[in-house]
Amino acid sequence: MKYKETTRSGGALPWLFQRISGVYLAIVLFVHVVNLHILIDGEIGYAAIAERVATPLWKTINISFLIVALFHGLYGLWIVLEDYIHIGWLRVLIYGVIATIALVFAIFGTLTMITFQYGG
Amino acid sequence: MAMITFKINRYNPDDEKRGHFVQEYQIDVPKGYTLLDCLNDIKWKLDGTLTYRRSCRSGICGSCAMTINGVNNLACETQVLGLNCSTVTVEPLRGYPVVKDLAVSLDPIVRGLLAVKPYLMTKTPPPTDQERLQSPEEREKLDGLYECILCGSCTSSCPSFWADKEYIGPHALLKAYRFVADSRDECPGEHLEPIDDKHGLWRCHTIFNCVEACPKDLNPTKAIAELKKELIRGKLG
Questions:
Q1: What is the CATH number of the domain that holds A38?
Q2: A52 inside domain
Q3: In chain B, which residues have their Cβ closer than 8 Å to the Cβ of A82?
Q4: Residue A17: domain span
Q5: Which pTM value belongs to this model?
Q6: How many structural domains are present in chain A?
Q7: Under the phi-then-psi rule, with left for phi > 0, alpha for psi from -120 to 50, and beta for the rest, what region is B169?
């Protein structure tokens, strides 16, 4: 018997993925900082950044960062909304608006990354 | 000996018009008096209508848990002069429905407790010549788990419970882990399955209020973390 039989079961896998995504974000952020501020030769400017971002490896890293960060943030936000907004339809409405905006940003961000080119 | 003012939250269900209100009492408090002694003094000498729960006066039964100067504790274990203040605020445990004055309904925590099947469950028949034995190491794993006196202080202090009254609460989760961790229990899934729910284990946001509130210095948050590990291990095979 569930604690409350009418509720949807689970929460284990989202909880686990929230932790894994958190670790992934921390690692990518660390790599980003090391790459941009420590390993880089010369001045940090558009050319240096654009050259790096245009490579397939960094495109993949940036797109994955974008998607994982959005999942991490949106799931966290859903948990916060569950705690503070007790009217079901209002909670879904607020989350729906935020998630839609996030989805639009995700599409824009992904398209920008895929189509980005620099130099030859 | 010091003159102490007690500001006590009062509520009489037969006087809904008045609702919740604060009443002040002043008494001389000798050294060594616990809050329970003071409440007894007030009830026996000043105001017989004051209602609160009490039983063992030794920190064993958990009956007299209440919110004292904003912190959950047992009245019988709180030295009043040790609080170092001339005014002591006494409220019923937060988050539970108030029955009368300082007595709250503990139905929410009893419901959670029963859900986790708080008893040893076995599949094999018991040995015929002895009890089910544990090694000292296996027994040691239950330290910090079995001592819970069900006072309700932890769940009452939990913001996740304030936000979600269907949340099973830290006390029931601690109790669930007490049986999951017991080497004699052969059905840990029976204790884990009911809490694998969004109003169960996954509702805990690791706020640690329950750890601060527990008058027996137990650590429900740690038990909850262990339960999460157990459930995730089970799901990943």
A1: 1.20.1300.10
A2: yes
A3: 163-164
A4: 12-115
A5: 0.88
A6: 1
A7: left
